[in-house]
User: Which sequence fits this backbone?
DNA sequence: TTCGTATAAAATATCACAAATAACATATCA
DNA sequence: TGATATGTTATTTGTGATATTTTATACGAA
């Protein structure tokens, strides 16, 4: 792993519901803790959730290799639940089967970057427009609160940065109200995560997000202007892809 | 299963590359048989491919229950590769974990139908526009050939119908050139498949597709008119969802 | 020194089986 | 008769063992 000395492997507490009610298919009882369906959480899901978090916050870098035994040791389970979690990540494009029975984070490839950019812009902008059309004032207040909290935190580590960015985006997409598209966006972000690692740990460790685009999205949503919200989102997404694009074209 | 007496479980030959070169990430050596990477295909992938086909051609109906042991017996493997294939289908939304340790095809729900419709229209129309912008004349000739072949076949079974429809669509989306979006569309069709079962085996066993929209897509593409192609595609997709929508609202 | 072959090590894929869990059937009680 | 308790059965989930494949290493021959 490329982060042995930089960040801890994410240790989400097992009782943590992650993004809470950001999900568009959140249970109706979501507002009352403990009143969701009583359902055991199996090891496979627990392992997957942790790997998912790790991917989305950029714990893995493009080209990294993974190994079922090491992961099983780390999670203190047998190989099977790890394998099932990992197979799912392969299906979602976050990992590939590399030659030699290896599991690998897809290496940096310009064609893939372009493809992912296109997919993210196409789908996330669609869902942003949907969110603008559906948003109630309290939804936007919540987005504003997430932004305010992000701004008030200081100093910012890359993890803090990425976590609040992710929270903003997924709250927004949750408002869009499409569980199907929300899930698809999650899989896109799983693929995107290693590129975030590249930006924050290789390209420019001092880079910090500007919240300007996020503010514009909220303002546009308050005006019911889905076109403007879309534009702000596209600008936001494009910013990081431009950095990555330049990096792939830099002679090295 | 709802089809015990209607159709055979799809038995794709193991050497069959499925849609062949329709995939946008087809190997560069695709034009020369046998010169792709030499790579063993494991049981898990074989099982998954067959289940994928089964889903897409509407072998399963909304609400069907599946069972690992039965599937393992049918595929003549142990449970493990079946389990891994099935977990993937769960991740893709084609199956859900039902209460009581069961695996279930998601039941018919209007909200889900609407969500899937929206996702399909949003994403597939985007890829259609991309395809129009990228298509070479021979690509369109190929689409035309698929259509001609579909028309010349008679009589048409639902399976023939669905297979040629699928071939048309996926060839079109492959021309779009985005492996990421292509894979997403596949997962949408996995979810859509059981609704096809409903249309062809419950709602109207005599229904047959009209190729009119497909023809319009090709004509628009020849004119380089991505807007018209988009409209034709949206009409095509909407047609079946309208039938399903009416069915869910019919008092029964 | 280079190349070919054999062997060992490492990693995944599959299998067999035990444990956990939920549903169902049956018996008992009020 | 309906409600509750208990036992049985079916199915998934997780563990550990085994099989298979790939890579690394050692050794001998040219």
Assistant:
């Amino acid at each position: 792993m490329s982060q042995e000395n930089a960040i801890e492997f994410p240790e989400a507490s097992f009782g943590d519901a992650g993004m809470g009610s950001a999900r568009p298919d959140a249970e109706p009882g979501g507002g009352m803790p403990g009143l969701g369906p009583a359902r055991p959480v199996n090891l496979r899901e627990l392992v997957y959730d942790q790997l998912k978090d790790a991917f989305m916050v950029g714990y893995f870098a493009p080209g990294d290799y993974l190994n079922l035994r090491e992961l099983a040791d780390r999670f203190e389970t047998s190989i099977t639940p790890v394998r099932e979690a990992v197979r799912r990540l392969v299906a979602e494009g976050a990992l590939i089967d590399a030659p030699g029975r290896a599991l690998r984070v897809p290496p940096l490839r310009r064609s893939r970057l372009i493809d992912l950019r296109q997919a993210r812009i196409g789908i996330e902008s669609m869902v942003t427009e949907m969110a603008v059309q559906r948003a109630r004032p309290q939804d936007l207040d919540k987005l504003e609160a997430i932004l305010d909290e992000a701004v008030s935190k200081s100093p910012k580590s890359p993890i803090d940065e990425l976590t609040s960015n992710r929270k903003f985006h997924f709250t927004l997409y949750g408002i869009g109200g499409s569980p199907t598209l929300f899930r698809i966006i999650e899989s896109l972000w799983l693929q995107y995560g290693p590129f975030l690692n590249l930006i924050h740990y290789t390209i420019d460790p001092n880079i910090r997000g500007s919240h300007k685009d996020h503010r514009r999205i909220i303002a546009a949503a308050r005006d019911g202007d889905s076109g403007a919200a879309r534009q702000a989102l596209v600008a936001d997404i494009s910013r990081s892809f431009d950095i990555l694009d330049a990096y792939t074209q830099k002679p090295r």
Remarks:
- The longest strand of chain A covers residues 96-98.
- Chain A touches chain B through 26 residues (CB under 8 Å).
- The radius of gyration of chain A is 18 Å.
- Residues 40, 67-69, 79, 83, 97, 100-103 of chain A lie near DNA strand C (CB under 10 Å from a C1').
